[in-house]
Amino acid sequence: MADNYYMLQDLRILIIGTGKIGQQLASYLNFFDNHPIGINTNGRTIDSFRKTFSLDQLEEQASIADIVINILPLTDDTYHLYNKGFFQNMKESATFINVGRGPSVDTQDLYQALQNNAIAFAAIDVFEQEPLPADHPLWGLENILITPHISGFTPHFQKKFMAVFFENFTTFAKEGELTENEVSLASGY
């Protein structure tokens, strides 16, 4: 039975999305002596990660990960990125976590992967259709944790959000530029 328990530092954690949220999560994991691997568009190095790979190397890295965490935005490239082929490529003992965007996961393929034990567990905060219909078969599975799109809620969210807004507003009014969280319309995030 002891073989079913692991130390956090012994798990290979793959964070897909190395932006501010991914970096913060990586820094927390580093504190607990786990040094996560990151996936971003081009594999550029990010300090909080032991190593980073490009999105083209996702399936290779996911196949050896114990925990796969999606934090990617939704773009044409990430729509249904997590599908039947992706889940079949993961380790059967692996956990998949989605706190990114719902449509990046093919919900039916996720259901099949969990039902057939292609992956061991999933924790899903966002879905293609929200709320997840009450009669959806995912509700009947024991190897999934479903949360109601709450992963982004933090204490004092409004205060933090308004601080960013006012900083951007002030800078934009003075210089015509944003200082934080600027979205690239070309890339979609």
TrEMBL record:
* Pfam families found in the cross-reference section: 2-Hacid_dh_C (PF02826)
> Might you give the EC number(s) for this enzyme?
1.1.1.-, 1.1.1.95
The leader peptide range reads none
Q: Where is the D-isomer specific 2-hydroxyacid dehydrogenase NAD-binding domain?
A: 7-151
| InterPro entries for the chain | D-isomer_DH_NAD-bd (IPR006140), NAD(P)-bd_dom_sf (IPR036291)
Q: Which UniProt keywords apply?
A: NAD, Oxidoreductase
GO terms (molecular function) for this protein are: NAD binding; phosphoglycerate dehydrogenase activity
UniProt-recorded name of the protein: D-3-phosphoglycerate dehydrogenase
Source organism per entry reads: Tetragenococcus muriaticus PMC-11-5
